[in-house]
Model the fold of this input.
Amino acid sequence: MKATQNEILKDIAKLWQEVNELKKDVSELKKDVSELKETTKNTQRTLERLTLSVEDEAREVVEFRLEKEIGEKISLNRIFVDNEEIDLYGASNELCVIGEATVRLGTSLIDELERKIEKIKEKRPDLMRKRIIKLIYFDVATPDSIELAKKKGIWLLTIKADITPRIIHE
Done:
């Protein structure tokens, strides 16, 4: 069965039509990907601003509370130990404060804070003091994270209240 020249030309025309449809689809996909990239960038910027504002708020609240309630004027900053970020760190002669700030608190952040404190003890013992306050400043917490923080002696607080007591570890 030999295809006639007419049938071959029809098949070629059909192939070109399909190629043009594919080009159109690819062009639409590129446009969608470009829009998705822009949306992702905007979402990342918003998340970074929210995270930074929670950290800034935490610094202000904790610094104020420490000076007012226990007479310690400690400036809190973000530090890095082995490229790992600790949101809140500050020290005076005898006391250091190590903590995290987050919008949503789950048990994993409590474990992460404990791990980071151990890393500081191991890699940067010069940052440690005789007494330490471990804290997490947050907006919303899961009930199991609150229970775990109580067990580990981590001060949980929001802008409105203490959720667990502030403990100064010796």
User: Anything to note?
Assistant: The CA atoms of residues 78 and 87 lie 5 Å apart. The beta strands are 77-81, 84-91, 95-105, 131-141, 155-157. The chain has a mean pLDDT of 92.
